[in-house]
Amino acid sequence: MNNGFVYAFLIFGCGLFNCSDSELVENWKNPEIDAFQAQKVLVLSISNDKKNSSDFEKRLVTDLRTKGVNAFNSDDFFKNHNKNKAFTEEELEDLEALLLSQGYDAVLVSKVIGAEDKITLVQSYRNLNKTFDNFGSDYYSNQDLDNIEDQIENYVVYHAQSVLYCICPENKRQVIWRASIDVTKLDSDKKAIKEYIKMLLWTLEEQDLLISSSKF
Fold first, then answer.
1. Which residues of 61-70 are buried (b: 16+ CB within 10 A; e: fewer)?
2. pLDDT tens per residue, the chain (216 residues)?
3. Does a structural domain hold residue 71?
4. Which of 3, 83, 177, 206 is deepest in the core (most CB within 10 A)?
5. How far is Cα 59 from Cα 126, in angstroms, rounded to an integer?
6. Residue closest to 153 by CA, chosen among 180, 118, 183
């Protein structure tokens, strides 16, 4: 096995093991809706990490407003409520009535639904490539990996989901769109949030939801 083969394997492996920082796993749009631009949208992040949740909402609101969307984070709206609690149907009815009274017609909810530890491609390659006829061929084929040892590290993949609801009197909590996105956290929560929002905004614009693709 020469260096060219190892290089080719690494290129192929990026597709196999997903070397990008974010990946769109699911992208579902209500077939009854072609396009949707909200008059006023509430951005809601559900997480047990209050700081990251707040940072996420603020950044997403800023980016949505840059693209012409009348968006607001949930801090003020939920100041008298615990947004992470399990609401009863009656409480949800009251919240929707309050949203409507304040001019909201959509809610964009985002949440982390799971996380798992991963290892980098180099370590995966080393673990997979175990079968050789003798020590010499094994050592020769893998000796160059010692030069890229610094690429071997643990990282976390977050499985997150965003759902866009229409808050309409005739269609209570109608789901307009839903997407699942995997985000790789390599060095910071800030970067993971940035990558998630980038993918989220791109997908919304592609679907002509909230962000009008004809304007940008």
1. bebbeeeebb
2. 443 333 333 333 333 334 458 889 899 999 989 999 999 999 988 887 888 888 999 999 999 999 999 999 988 787 766 666 666 778 778 888 888 899 999 999 998 877 777 765 544 444 444 444 444 444 444 455 455 455 556 678 888 899 999 987 766 668 999 999 998 876 788 888 899 999 999 999 999 999 876 544
3. yes
4. 177
5. 39
6. 118
Count of domains in the chain? 1
52 falls within a domain: yes
Phi, then psi, of 47 in degrees rounded to 5: -160, 155
Nearest CA to 1 out of 128, 127, 136, 137 is that of 137
Tokens 């997403």 locate to: 60
Q: Containing domain of residue 157, as a range?
A: 21-120+152-206
Structural tokens at position 207: 């679907």
Contact call for residues 211 and 67 (beta carbons, < 8 A):
yes
Angle formed by the axes of helices 121-128 and 3-17, to 10°?
Answer: 110
Torsion-angle region of residue 120: left (phi > 0), alpha (psi -120 to 50) or beta?
beta
